[in-house]
Each structure stands twice: as C-alpha cells, then as structure tokens.
Design goal:
Length: 177
Amino acid sequence: MKLVFGLLKGFAIVVVALIAIAFLLPSEVSVSRSIQISAPAADIFPHVNSMQATEAWSPWLSRDPNVELTYEGPEDGVGNTLRWSSDEPSVGTGIQVITASTPNERVETALDFGPQGLANAYFDLEPADGGTLVTWGFDTKLGMNPFARWMGLMFDSWIGADYEKGLANLKALVEAG
C-alpha cells in the first residue's frame, strides 16, 4: 500500500511541476517562413489577396478532397472570407477573413479555429534580387492554458512545414505563369 501511495505522490508532484513549468513557457507563438519568387509582387499579390485563389496552392486542401469550402464577401481584399469544414483532423473546421490589404505589399487575415482558438496570419511581399521575397507568418496567443503552452513549443515544426509546402506551391504556380 505504501508503494501505491508513493507512486501517486510522485505522479502528483510530476503533474504539478509540469503545470508550473508551463507558466514559464511563452504565452504567444509566432511562426514564419519565406521564399524567393522570380516574379514581381504584382504577379503574386492576387494569389494571396483572395481566399478563392489560395485553393490553387494551399498545403491543407490536398489532405481532404471532400473538404467543404464556402466563400463570403468580396472576391478579394478586405472582407473576403473562407469557411471550411473537414472531418480530417489536420484540416479541421474554421473561418479565415482578410482584415487588411495593401496592394503588392501585405495581406493580413484573422483565423478562427473554433475551440482550438484564434490566430492572425499575414503575407509580406518585398522586392528582392529581381523577384519578390514572400513571407508567410502566423501569430497566436496561448493564454493561461498550460496544455496550450506546451503545445506551443511544437507550432514552429507543425505550421512551419505546412507554410514551406504552401510557399513552394505558390512559387511553382506563379513562376509557371
């Protein structure tokens, strides 16, 4: 019986330690990836300033060919909205709306993943070496949830890999012209 209580006590100490350490972890996560595209920003901008246009290069839509997509608002720019729903956990359900758009320079979006939380994403387009440097970024606040803070340590590898794939798809699409 002493052994069982000792194991329970040890387990409780580990759980309390993990929770305490979680509050020392960052409460915000930022992920970004960049790629050089051999094209002017004007050729790239339409592909990031419209949720409909992202279908052609999205790294997530190929994971579920049955994903349901619904568009609202204008065809592009501020207010252009995508709602998606998928039974595939890596695609999930959510809403993304363009909240700011500066032609050939920057597009900002707000994301709502339902119970998984809120985030913001952006595309920056900067002239570089005869082409355009495209940066795709993601920012989210993890709040006081200790589990979310631990998960935040993995966001860069999870989201970063998808962003790299998406940017490679975008580059291939734009450069194929």
